[in-house]
Amino acid sequence: MDRPSAVERLLREAVPHRIVEVLRTQIEQRHQAQGVELLLSDYATSRLQPVGDMYHSGGSVPVHGSDAGRAFGAQAPHCVHDPKASTTTVHLPVTVRGDRLGVLRVTLPDSEGAGPGSDALEDLAACAQALAHEVVVAERDTDLFLQARRAERLTLAAEMQWQLLPGRSCVRDEYSIGAQLQPAYAIHGDSFDWSASADELVLTVNNGMGEGIDAALLTNLAVNALRNARRAGLELADQAYLADQAVFGQHHGSRHLAALLLRFHLPTGNVEIIDAGSPRIWRLRAGVVEAVELEAQMPLGMFQDTVYTVQDFTVEPGDRLFFVSDGVYDALSPAGEKYSVRALARAITETRLLPASQVPRAVLESLLGHQGSGPVVDDALVLCLDWHGRPGAG
Question: If you read the UniProt record, what top EC class would you report for this enzyme, in one word (predicted)?
Protein backbone atom coordinates (compact mmCIF):
# COMPACT_ATOMS: atom_id res chain seq x y z
CA MET A 1 0.00 0.00 0.00
CA ASP A 2 1.30 3.48 -0.87
CA ARG A 3 2.15 5.68 2.04
CA PRO A 4 -0.05 8.75 2.68
CA SER A 5 2.70 10.99 1.26
CA ALA A 6 1.50 10.01 -2.21
CA VAL A 7 -1.98 11.27 -1.36
CA GLU A 8 -0.56 14.46 0.11
CA ARG A 9 1.31 15.12 -3.13
CA LEU A 10 -1.80 14.56 -5.24
CA LEU A 11 -3.85 16.89 -3.04
CA ARG A 12 -1.20 19.60 -3.27
CA GLU A 13 -1.20 19.33 -7.05
CA ALA A 14 -5.00 19.35 -7.41
CA VAL A 15 -6.91 22.55 -8.18
CA PRO A 16 -8.53 23.81 -4.95
CA HIS A 17 -12.16 22.99 -5.74
CA ARG A 18 -11.30 19.40 -6.69
CA ILE A 19 -9.30 18.22 -3.69
CA VAL A 20 -12.22 16.23 -2.25
CA GLU A 21 -12.81 14.58 -5.62
CA VAL A 22 -9.12 13.69 -5.90
CA LEU A 23 -9.10 12.21 -2.40
CA ARG A 24 -12.31 10.29 -3.14
CA THR A 25 -10.69 8.67 -6.17
CA GLN A 26 -7.62 7.67 -4.17
CA ILE A 27 -9.60 6.16 -1.29
CA GLU A 28 -11.84 4.27 -3.70
CA GLN A 29 -8.77 2.78 -5.37
CA ARG A 30 -6.87 2.02 -2.15
CA HIS A 31 -9.78 0.68 -0.07
CA GLN A 32 -12.55 -0.14 -2.58
CA ALA A 33 -14.68 2.46 -0.83
CA GLN A 34 -18.31 2.80 -1.89
CA GLY A 35 -18.62 6.39 -0.72
CA VAL A 36 -16.36 9.22 0.40
CA GLU A 37 -17.81 12.50 1.70
CA LEU A 38 -16.46 15.55 3.51
CA LEU A 39 -18.74 17.13 6.13
CA LEU A 40 -17.75 20.57 7.47
CA SER A 41 -18.86 22.12 10.73
CA ASP A 42 -21.25 25.03 10.23
CA TYR A 43 -20.62 28.42 11.81
CA ALA A 44 -22.78 27.62 14.82
CA THR A 45 -20.96 24.30 15.42
CA SER A 46 -24.36 22.64 15.53
CA ARG A 47 -24.42 20.79 12.18
CA LEU A 48 -22.02 19.00 9.85
CA GLN A 49 -22.63 20.10 6.26
CA PRO A 50 -21.65 18.13 3.13
CA VAL A 51 -19.41 20.06 0.77
CA GLY A 52 -21.62 21.42 -1.99
CA ASP A 53 -24.72 21.59 0.26
CA MET A 54 -25.41 25.27 1.02
CA TYR A 55 -28.34 26.96 2.82
CA HIS A 56 -30.28 23.74 3.31
CA SER A 57 -29.84 20.68 5.48
CA GLY A 58 -30.89 17.89 3.15
CA GLY A 59 -27.56 16.10 3.62
CA SER A 60 -26.37 17.67 6.85
CA VAL A 61 -26.36 15.92 10.22
CA PRO A 62 -26.45 17.35 13.74
CA VAL A 63 -23.22 17.49 15.72
CA HIS A 64 -25.01 16.11 18.76
CA GLY A 65 -26.59 12.69 18.41
CA SER A 66 -25.08 11.60 15.09
CA ASP A 67 -22.31 9.15 14.23
CA ALA A 68 -20.34 11.83 12.40
CA GLY A 69 -20.85 14.17 15.35
CA ARG A 70 -19.43 11.55 17.68
CA ALA A 71 -16.18 11.46 15.71
CA PHE A 72 -16.18 15.26 15.57
CA GLY A 73 -16.66 15.64 19.32
CA ALA A 74 -14.32 12.87 20.48
CA GLN A 75 -11.73 13.69 17.80
CA ALA A 76 -11.29 9.98 17.13
CA PRO A 77 -12.44 7.61 14.36
CA HIS A 78 -15.90 6.12 14.81
CA CYS A 79 -17.04 3.05 12.84
CA VAL A 80 -20.65 2.01 12.22
CA HIS A 81 -21.52 -1.36 10.65
CA ASP A 82 -24.64 -1.79 8.50
CA PRO A 83 -25.40 -5.53 8.28
CA LYS A 84 -28.15 -5.05 5.68
CA ALA A 85 -25.84 -3.23 3.28
CA SER A 86 -22.77 -5.26 4.33
CA THR A 87 -20.80 -2.06 4.82
CA THR A 88 -18.97 -0.22 7.57
CA THR A 89 -18.93 3.57 7.56
CA VAL A 90 -15.84 5.15 9.09
CA HIS A 91 -16.10 8.71 10.41
CA LEU A 92 -12.73 10.45 10.78
CA PRO A 93 -12.06 13.90 12.29
CA VAL A 94 -10.71 16.49 9.87
CA THR A 95 -8.61 18.74 12.10
CA VAL A 96 -5.64 21.10 11.76
CA ARG A 97 -3.57 21.78 14.89
CA GLY A 98 -6.61 21.36 17.08
CA ASP A 99 -8.96 23.43 14.88
CA ARG A 100 -11.90 21.12 14.19
CA LEU A 101 -13.01 21.57 10.58
CA GLY A 102 -15.31 18.59 10.13
CA VAL A 103 -15.49 14.87 9.43
CA LEU A 104 -14.49 12.61 6.52
CA ARG A 105 -17.10 9.89 6.03
CA VAL A 106 -15.92 6.74 4.21
CA THR A 107 -18.18 3.76 3.45
CA LEU A 108 -16.32 0.45 3.02
CA PRO A 109 -17.53 -3.01 1.98
CA ASP A 110 -17.68 -5.24 5.07
CA SER A 111 -19.79 -8.39 4.89
CA GLU A 112 -18.52 -9.79 8.19
CA GLY A 113 -18.75 -6.64 10.26
CA ALA A 114 -15.13 -6.81 11.32
CA GLY A 115 -14.45 -3.19 10.38
CA PRO A 116 -11.28 -1.89 8.76
CA GLY A 117 -7.96 -3.23 9.98
CA SER A 118 -5.55 -1.09 11.92
CA ASP A 119 -3.41 -0.39 8.84
CA ALA A 120 -6.44 0.70 6.79
CA LEU A 121 -7.77 2.83 9.64
CA GLU A 122 -4.37 4.48 10.09
CA ASP A 123 -4.18 5.21 6.37
CA LEU A 124 -7.69 6.72 6.31
CA ALA A 125 -6.87 8.88 9.33
CA ALA A 126 -3.74 10.13 7.55
CA CYS A 127 -5.84 10.92 4.47
CA ALA A 128 -8.26 12.93 6.63
CA GLN A 129 -5.38 14.85 8.17
CA ALA A 130 -3.87 15.62 4.76
CA LEU A 131 -7.27 16.80 3.56
CA ALA A 132 -7.60 19.13 6.55
CA HIS A 133 -4.39 20.94 5.70
CA GLU A 134 -5.37 21.29 2.06
CA VAL A 135 -8.84 22.65 2.90
CA VAL A 136 -7.24 25.48 4.89
CA VAL A 137 -4.95 26.32 1.97
CA ALA A 138 -7.68 25.91 -0.67
CA GLU A 139 -9.96 28.43 1.07
CA ARG A 140 -7.69 31.19 -0.22
CA ASP A 141 -8.70 30.37 -3.79
CA THR A 142 -12.22 28.96 -3.70
CA ASP A 143 -15.49 29.65 -1.84
CA LEU A 144 -16.53 25.99 -2.03
CA PHE A 145 -15.64 25.12 1.56
CA LEU A 146 -16.77 28.41 3.09
CA GLN A 147 -20.13 27.99 1.36
CA ALA A 148 -20.50 24.45 2.66
CA ARG A 149 -20.25 25.72 6.25
CA ARG A 150 -23.43 27.80 5.89
CA ALA A 151 -26.62 26.31 7.22
CA GLU A 152 -28.16 29.70 6.49
CA ARG A 153 -27.04 33.00 5.03
CA LEU A 154 -24.55 35.16 6.95
CA THR A 155 -25.18 38.84 7.49
CA LEU A 156 -22.52 41.11 5.98
CA ALA A 157 -21.25 41.99 9.47
CA ALA A 158 -20.92 38.30 10.34
CA GLU A 159 -19.10 37.65 7.05
CA MET A 160 -16.55 40.31 8.02
CA GLN A 161 -16.13 38.99 11.56
CA TRP A 162 -15.67 35.32 10.69
CA GLN A 163 -13.02 36.19 8.10
CA LEU A 164 -11.15 38.05 10.83
CA LEU A 165 -10.78 35.08 13.20
CA PRO A 166 -7.71 32.81 13.44
CA GLY A 167 -9.89 29.71 13.94
CA ARG A 168 -12.21 28.35 16.60
CA SER A 169 -9.83 26.07 18.45
CA CYS A 170 -6.11 25.47 18.78
CA VAL A 171 -3.99 22.88 20.59
CA ARG A 172 -0.35 22.97 21.66
CA ASP A 173 1.56 21.13 24.36
CA GLU A 174 1.25 24.12 26.70
CA TYR A 175 -2.40 25.06 26.14
CA SER A 176 -5.70 24.32 24.40
CA ILE A 177 -8.11 27.01 23.19
CA GLY A 178 -11.75 26.88 22.13
CA ALA A 179 -13.93 29.85 21.17
CA GLN A 180 -17.39 30.51 19.75
CA LEU A 181 -19.51 33.52 18.76
CA GLN A 182 -23.29 33.83 19.02
CA PRO A 183 -25.51 34.39 17.09
CA ALA A 184 -23.16 32.74 14.62
CA TYR A 185 -24.92 34.01 11.49
CA ALA A 186 -25.51 37.56 12.72
CA ILE A 187 -22.50 38.41 14.92
CA HIS A 188 -21.28 42.01 14.71
CA GLY A 189 -18.93 43.43 17.40
CA ASP A 190 -17.35 40.54 19.31
CA SER A 191 -14.09 38.99 18.17
CA PHE A 192 -10.94 37.20 19.33
CA ASP A 193 -7.43 36.68 18.02
CA TRP A 194 -4.33 34.72 18.94
CA SER A 195 -0.80 34.15 17.75
CA ALA A 196 1.95 31.94 19.18
CA SER A 197 5.72 31.72 18.84
CA ALA A 198 8.23 29.38 20.46
CA ASP A 199 7.85 30.89 23.93
CA GLU A 200 4.85 33.24 23.78
CA LEU A 201 1.12 33.21 23.17
CA VAL A 202 -0.55 36.57 22.53
CA LEU A 203 -4.33 36.50 22.94
CA THR A 204 -6.88 39.27 22.51
CA VAL A 205 -10.62 39.29 23.21
CA ASN A 206 -12.58 42.23 21.80
CA ASN A 207 -16.05 43.75 22.05
CA GLY A 208 -16.70 46.62 19.65
CA MET A 209 -19.56 48.97 20.46
CA GLY A 210 -22.53 49.33 18.16
CA GLU A 211 -24.39 46.96 15.89
CA GLY A 212 -24.16 45.53 12.41
CA ILE A 213 -21.57 46.76 9.94
CA ASP A 214 -20.53 49.72 12.11
CA ALA A 215 -19.47 47.34 14.91
CA ALA A 216 -17.77 44.96 12.47
CA LEU A 217 -15.79 47.81 10.88
CA LEU A 218 -14.70 49.05 14.29
CA THR A 219 -13.54 45.60 15.36
CA ASN A 220 -11.71 45.03 12.07
CA LEU A 221 -9.83 48.31 12.51
CA ALA A 222 -8.82 47.54 16.09
CA VAL A 223 -7.81 43.91 15.48
CA ASN A 224 -5.68 44.81 12.47
CA ALA A 225 -4.06 47.68 14.39
CA LEU A 226 -3.19 45.24 17.19
CA ARG A 227 -1.81 42.75 14.68
CA ASN A 228 0.25 45.45 12.99
CA ALA A 229 1.79 46.48 16.31
CA ARG A 230 2.34 42.87 17.42
CA ARG A 231 4.04 41.92 14.17
CA ALA A 232 6.31 44.94 14.53
CA GLY A 233 7.60 43.32 17.74
CA LEU A 234 6.20 45.94 20.12
CA GLU A 235 5.52 45.33 23.78
CA LEU A 236 1.96 44.75 24.98
CA ALA A 237 1.44 48.29 26.29
CA ASP A 238 2.61 49.75 22.98
CA GLN A 239 0.28 47.43 21.08
CA ALA A 240 -2.64 48.77 23.10
CA TYR A 241 -1.47 52.38 22.64
CA LEU A 242 -1.17 52.16 18.86
CA ALA A 243 -4.53 50.39 18.49
CA ASP A 244 -6.07 53.04 20.76
CA GLN A 245 -4.67 55.79 18.55
CA ALA A 246 -5.85 54.07 15.36
CA VAL A 247 -9.44 53.88 16.66
CA PHE A 248 -9.36 57.40 18.10
CA GLY A 249 -7.87 58.80 14.90
CA GLN A 250 -10.75 57.32 12.91
CA HIS A 251 -13.67 58.04 15.25
CA HIS A 252 -12.38 60.84 17.58
CA GLY A 253 -13.86 59.20 20.66
CA SER A 254 -17.35 58.66 19.29
CA ARG A 255 -16.71 54.92 19.05
CA HIS A 256 -14.52 52.67 21.14
CA LEU A 257 -13.72 49.02 21.64
CA ALA A 258 -13.38 47.06 24.89
CA ALA A 259 -10.48 44.62 24.82
CA LEU A 260 -8.38 42.23 26.83
CA LEU A 261 -4.76 41.87 25.73
CA LEU A 262 -2.73 38.99 27.16
CA ARG A 263 0.75 37.64 26.60
CA PHE A 264 1.53 34.21 28.07
CA HIS A 265 5.15 33.20 28.70
CA LEU A 266 4.90 29.54 27.75
CA PRO A 267 7.87 28.16 29.75
CA THR A 268 6.71 29.66 33.08
CA GLY A 269 2.99 30.46 32.88
CA ASN A 270 3.55 34.14 33.68
CA VAL A 271 0.92 36.33 32.02
CA GLU A 272 1.05 40.01 31.11
CA ILE A 273 -2.40 41.53 30.73
CA ILE A 274 -4.08 44.83 29.90
CA ASP A 275 -7.74 45.26 30.77
CA ALA A 276 -9.01 47.94 28.37
CA GLY A 277 -12.67 48.02 29.40
CA SER A 278 -12.66 44.35 28.73
CA PRO A 279 -14.74 41.24 28.65
CA ARG A 280 -14.30 39.57 32.04
CA ILE A 281 -12.04 36.63 32.98
CA TRP A 282 -13.03 33.70 35.15
CA ARG A 283 -10.69 30.98 36.38
CA LEU A 284 -11.54 27.40 37.26
CA ARG A 285 -8.82 26.07 39.55
CA ALA A 286 -9.13 22.89 41.62
CA GLY A 287 -12.90 22.92 41.11
CA VAL A 288 -13.35 26.51 42.32
CA VAL A 289 -14.69 29.21 39.99
CA GLU A 290 -13.44 32.73 40.72
CA ALA A 291 -13.14 36.03 38.89
CA VAL A 292 -9.69 37.29 37.95
CA GLU A 293 -9.73 40.81 39.37
CA LEU A 294 -7.94 43.41 37.24
CA GLU A 295 -7.49 47.16 37.17
CA ALA A 296 -9.92 48.43 34.55
CA GLN A 297 -8.44 50.89 32.04
CA MET A 298 -9.95 52.93 29.24
CA PRO A 299 -11.40 51.15 26.17
CA LEU A 300 -9.42 51.51 22.96
CA GLY A 301 -10.22 54.74 21.12
CA MET A 302 -12.10 56.54 23.89
CA PHE A 303 -9.48 59.25 24.50
CA GLN A 304 -6.36 60.51 22.80
CA ASP A 305 -2.90 59.47 24.10
CA THR A 306 -4.20 56.99 26.67
CA VAL A 307 -1.34 55.30 28.52
CA TYR A 308 -1.89 51.61 29.28
CA THR A 309 -0.33 49.74 32.20
CA VAL A 310 0.53 46.05 32.14
CA GLN A 311 -0.53 43.85 35.03
CA ASP A 312 0.67 40.32 35.82
CA PHE A 313 -0.70 37.05 37.08
CA THR A 314 0.34 33.41 36.81
CA VAL A 315 -1.45 30.36 35.49
CA GLU A 316 -0.81 26.89 36.86
CA PRO A 317 -1.09 23.53 35.08
CA GLY A 318 -4.73 22.45 35.26
CA ASP A 319 -6.11 26.01 35.25
CA ARG A 320 -9.00 26.79 32.94
CA LEU A 321 -9.61 30.43 31.96
CA PHE A 322 -12.90 31.77 30.61
CA PHE A 323 -13.23 35.01 28.67
CA VAL A 324 -16.83 36.17 28.45
CA SER A 325 -18.26 39.24 26.70
CA ASP A 326 -21.03 41.43 28.09
CA GLY A 327 -23.49 39.79 25.69
CA VAL A 328 -23.48 36.85 28.12
CA TYR A 329 -24.10 38.88 31.29
CA ASP A 330 -26.71 41.11 29.67
CA ALA A 331 -28.72 38.29 28.10
CA LEU A 332 -32.33 38.47 29.25
CA SER A 333 -34.84 35.72 29.87
CA PRO A 334 -38.41 36.06 28.53
CA ALA A 335 -39.28 37.45 31.99
CA GLY A 336 -36.57 40.12 31.72
CA GLU A 337 -34.09 38.49 34.12
CA LYS A 338 -30.37 38.82 33.33
CA TYR A 339 -28.15 35.76 33.00
CA SER A 340 -26.52 35.86 36.41
CA VAL A 341 -22.95 35.30 37.52
CA ARG A 342 -24.24 32.33 39.48
CA ALA A 343 -25.67 30.78 36.30
CA LEU A 344 -22.37 31.35 34.50
CA ALA A 345 -20.41 29.76 37.35
CA ARG A 346 -22.75 26.77 37.23
CA ALA A 347 -22.24 26.42 33.45
CA ILE A 348 -18.46 26.63 33.92
CA THR A 349 -18.55 23.90 36.56
CA GLU A 350 -20.86 21.65 34.56
CA THR A 351 -18.53 21.73 31.53
CA ARG A 352 -15.33 21.06 33.50
CA LEU A 353 -14.85 17.58 32.00
CA LEU A 354 -15.21 18.71 28.37
CA PRO A 355 -12.16 19.60 26.28
CA ALA A 356 -11.63 23.31 25.70
CA SER A 357 -12.83 23.08 22.08
CA GLN A 358 -16.30 21.94 23.19
CA VAL A 359 -16.77 24.20 26.21
CA PRO A 360 -17.82 27.52 24.55
CA ARG A 361 -20.63 25.91 22.60
CA ALA A 362 -21.89 24.13 25.74
CA VAL A 363 -21.86 27.37 27.76
CA LEU A 364 -23.65 29.26 24.99
CA GLU A 365 -26.30 26.54 24.83
CA SER A 366 -26.95 27.21 28.52
CA LEU A 367 -27.28 30.88 27.64
CA LEU A 368 -29.74 30.09 24.85
CA GLY A 369 -31.80 28.07 27.28
CA HIS A 370 -31.98 31.12 29.54
CA GLN A 371 -32.97 33.45 26.69
CA GLY A 372 -35.68 31.21 25.32
CA SER A 373 -36.96 31.53 21.75
CA GLY A 374 -37.07 35.32 21.64
CA PRO A 375 -34.75 37.49 19.53
CA VAL A 376 -31.10 37.83 20.63
CA VAL A 377 -30.47 41.42 21.71
CA ASP A 378 -26.65 41.35 21.77
CA ASP A 379 -23.94 39.12 20.41
CA ALA A 380 -21.95 37.00 22.83
CA LEU A 381 -18.47 35.50 22.96
CA VAL A 382 -17.08 32.69 25.09
CA LEU A 383 -13.41 31.67 24.89
CA CYS A 384 -11.96 28.86 26.99
CA LEU A 385 -8.22 28.33 27.55
CA ASP A 386 -6.85 25.25 29.30
CA TRP A 387 -3.34 25.70 30.61
CA HIS A 388 -1.25 22.51 30.61
CA GLY A 389 2.19 24.03 31.17
CA ARG A 390 5.32 23.25 29.24
CA PRO A 391 6.30 19.58 29.54
CA GLY A 392 9.43 19.23 31.65
CA ALA A 393 9.36 22.84 32.81
CA GLY A 394 8.82 21.89 36.45
Answer: hydrolase
Cβ–Cβ under 8 Å, residues 298 and 261? no
CA nearest to 203, candidates 157, 257, 239, 256: 239
What is the C-alpha separation between 36 and 50, in angstroms, rounded? 11
| pLDDT tens per residue across span 313-323 | 999 999 999 99
Rounded CA gap, 194 and 118, in Å? 37
Single out the residue of 340, 201, 345, 192 nearest to residue 282, CA to CA. Answer: 345
Buried b (16+ CB within 10 A) or exposed e, 81-109: eeeeeebbbbbbbbbbebbbbbbbbbbbe
Helix (H) or strand (E) holding 45: none
**Backbone phi, psi, residue 101, to 5°:** -90, -40
In this structure, which amino acid lies at residue 268?
T
**C-alpha span between 59 and 256 (Å, rounded):** 43
